[in-house]
Structures are given as C-alpha cells and as structure tokens.
C-alpha cells in the first residue's frame, strides 16, 4: 500500500510544482506588462520634454535678439554722448584739421563716386522696381537681413547642439530599456521551458497512476473472488 501511494504523492507534488510554476509565470507576465506601461509613459514624457525644450529655445532666441537690440541702442547712445563731449572740448583745435580732412575725403569720395557710379545706377534701378523709396533704405535693409542671418545661424547652431545632446541621452535610455526588455524576454523563455518540462514530467506520473489504479482494481476483484470462494467453502 505504501508503494502504491508513493507515486500518487509524487504525482501530487509534481502537480503542485506545476501550479506554482504557472502562478510564477503569470506574476512575471503581469510584472512585464507593468514595466512596459512604465516605459511607454516615459517615452511620452520624453517627447513632451523635447517639445518643451524646443519652445524654450525659441523663446530664448527671441529674448536674446531683444537684449542684443537694446544693448546696441544703449551702446550707440553712450558712444554719441561721449563723442559730443569730446567734440565740445576739441572743437576749435579740430576745426582746421577737419576742414583739411574733409577736403581730402571729398576728393576721395568724388573718386569713389566716379569709380562706383555703376553700382549707384544699379541701386537706383532696384529702387525703381521695388517698394523702397531711397537707396539708403535698400542698404539698411541689406544690413538688417545680414545681421538677422547671422543671429539665425547662431541660434541654429545652439539648437543643433542641444538636439545632439538630447539624442545622445535618448539613445542611452533606449539602449538601457532594450537591454531590460531582452532580459525579461530571456527570463520569460526560461520560465516557459521550465513550465513545459514540468508538464512533460506530469504525463509519465499520470500514466503510472493509471497503471496503479488498474492493478488495484484487478487485485480488488481477485480478493473479492477469493473471499467469495472462502465463504462458499465455509458454507
């Protein structure tokens, strides 16, 4: 009787182990789903932070342009004030020098006007076919566009550097999470293999238990026949 019960006990233990393995597998799968939810949330947070960073960069660029404009205006005002004071102090001394310098300059300008008259004609034609009223407005417009182009290049360079840094951080974060996902997949495969092994172990024990039940039924039938024969002999 003990020999017949031992396989049954081992079979029950194997079934219990299989149930425990199934429960552990379900817990691992639930934990894996929760981690994937957390990773998805972090991805959304990262995209939101990238949008905030872009907005901040645009706002910072506008503020820098406004500050540069105010600084240039203040600098120009200070320079003009200093020049006015110096002019008042040295007006008499510089009068003759300025006159001579103006004459020389006038001569040079006349030479330059003669030399660059073709460009003046070109600018006059530009004024005629554009919305500008004077040549000086065209020159101012060109200088303004040139300065804006320079500021835009600087802003683009700063944004490019920030984007590269964000990309490096994103690549590092992605690599870490991919490694974690791969590790969880490996654990899931190992648990699946163990579960399949446990199921394959249960099948022989179930076959053995069926054989034991058949043998027990035969012996029980034989014992009943013997008891009946003894009872008949006793009668």
What is the average of the pLDDT values?
81
Q: What shape does the CA trace take?
A: rod-shaped
Instruction: Compute the CA-based radius of gyration.
Output: 48 Å
Number of helices: 4
Helix-strand category: mainly alpha
Secondary-structure element series: HHHH
In percent terms, what proportion of residues is strand?
Answer: under 5%
Q: Total number of β-strand segments? A: 0
Largest β sheet strand count, sense and barrel closure: none
Termini separation comes to 31 Å
> Stretches where pLDDT falls below 50 for ≥5 residues?
none
Indicate the percent of residues in helices: over 70%
Summarize the structure.
The chain is built from four helices and no strands. It has helices at 2-89, 91-115, 117-129, 135-234.
What distinguishing features does this structure have?
4 helices; single chain; mainly alpha
Descriptive report:
With 235 residues, this protein is mostly helical. The chain has a domain at 1-91. The chain is 96% helix and 0% strand. It has helices at 2-89, 91-115, 117-129, 135-234. It is rod-shaped and about 165 Å long. The two termini are 31 Å apart. The mean pLDDT is 81. This is CCD42 protein. Keywords: Coiled coil. It comes from Fregetta grallaria.
Fold blueprint:
Blueprint: H1 2-89, H2 91-115, H3 117-129, H4 135-234
């Amino acid at each position: 009787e003990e020999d017949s019960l031992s396989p049954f006990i081992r079979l029950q233990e194997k079934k219990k182990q299989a149930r425990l393995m199934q429960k552990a597998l379900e817990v691992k799968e639930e934990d894996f789903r929760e981690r994937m939810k957390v990773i998805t949330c972090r991805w959304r947070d990262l995209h939101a932070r990238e949008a905030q960073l872009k907005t901040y960069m645009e706002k910072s660029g506008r503020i820098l342009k406004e500050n540069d404009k105010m600084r240039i205006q203040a600098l120009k005002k200070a320079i003009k004030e200093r020049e006015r004071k110096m002019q008042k102090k040295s007006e008499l001394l510089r009068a003759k020098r300025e006159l001579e310098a103006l004459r020389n300059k006038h001569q040079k300008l006349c030479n330059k006007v003669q030399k660059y008259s073709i460009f003046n004609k070109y600018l006059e034609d530009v004024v005629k076919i554009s919305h500008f009223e004077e040549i000086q407005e065209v020159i101012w417009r060109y200088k303004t566009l040139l300065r804006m182009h320079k500021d835009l290049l600087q802003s683009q360079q700063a944004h490019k550097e920030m984007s590269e840094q964000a990309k490096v951080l994103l690549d590092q974060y992605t690599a870490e999470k991919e490694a974690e996902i791969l590790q969880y997949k490996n654990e899931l495969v190992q648990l699946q293999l163990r579960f399949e092994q446990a199921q394959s172990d249960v099948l022989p024990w179930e076959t053995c238990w069926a054989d034991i039940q058949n043998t027990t039924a035969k012996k029980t039938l034989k014992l009943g026949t013997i008891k009946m024969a003894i009872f008949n002999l006793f009668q």
